[in-house]
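Anyone up for a design puzzle?
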């Protein structure tokens, strides 16, 4: 009788682990193909300080960045929007001002595409945004693609706070982040 209870407990535990793993893999990351990775839609975190590495502003590779503005955002923002992204080895691409307030970028319910040059990264595992200004801005997602690394999408779906770097860091390892 005791062996039957242990066996039933073991089977129940295995089913629980399989169900947990299935639900975790369906929410933690969704790979649409080998060349694209979509990071989970969890709450982005503020970054108390972000060190911009002076040697990381050089251009060696091209990136296409597609930023979707949420439909609940203001009609368009005139705020300064800065972008930083990189890999687990500490390579960083920094754009001090990605927006052009005169061109109507970042209108509600729209996607803006930017071609950016920067140092060559490995797989991109973090992205941070910075907003400075009175208008406010609701970002939906940031998609980054390049010929030399897989495409990644970071789902924000939040208002970007004013005056602080803010975003996602899915890098692993001690050298994973240029954050101080």
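Challenge accepted. My sequence:
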């Amino acid at each position: 009788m005791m062996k039957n209870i242990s066996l039933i407990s073991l089977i129940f535990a295995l089913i629980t682990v399989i169900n947990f793993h299935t639900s975790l893999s369906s929410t933690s990351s969704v790979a649409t193909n080998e060349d694209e990775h979509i990071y989970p839609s969890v709450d982005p975190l503020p970054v108390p300080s972000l060190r911009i590495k002076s040697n990381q502003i050089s251009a060696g590779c091209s990136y296409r960045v597609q930023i979707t503005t949420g439909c609940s955002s203001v009609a368009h923002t005139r705020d300064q929007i800065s972008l930083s992204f990189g890999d687990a080895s500490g390579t960083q691409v920094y754009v001090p001002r990605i927006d052009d307030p005169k061109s109507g970028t970042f209108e509600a319910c729209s996607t803006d595409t930017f071609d950016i040059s920067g140092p060559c990264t490995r797989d991109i595992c973090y992205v941070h945004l910075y907003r400075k200004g009175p208008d406010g801005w609701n970002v939906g997602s940031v998609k980054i693609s390049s010929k030399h690394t897989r495409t990644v999408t970071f789902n924000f779906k939040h208002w970007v706070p004013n005056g602080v770097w803010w975003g996602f860091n899915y890098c692993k390892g001690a050298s994973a982040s240029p954050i101080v």
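A detail worth pointing out: Residues 71 and 95 are 24 Å apart (CA to CA).
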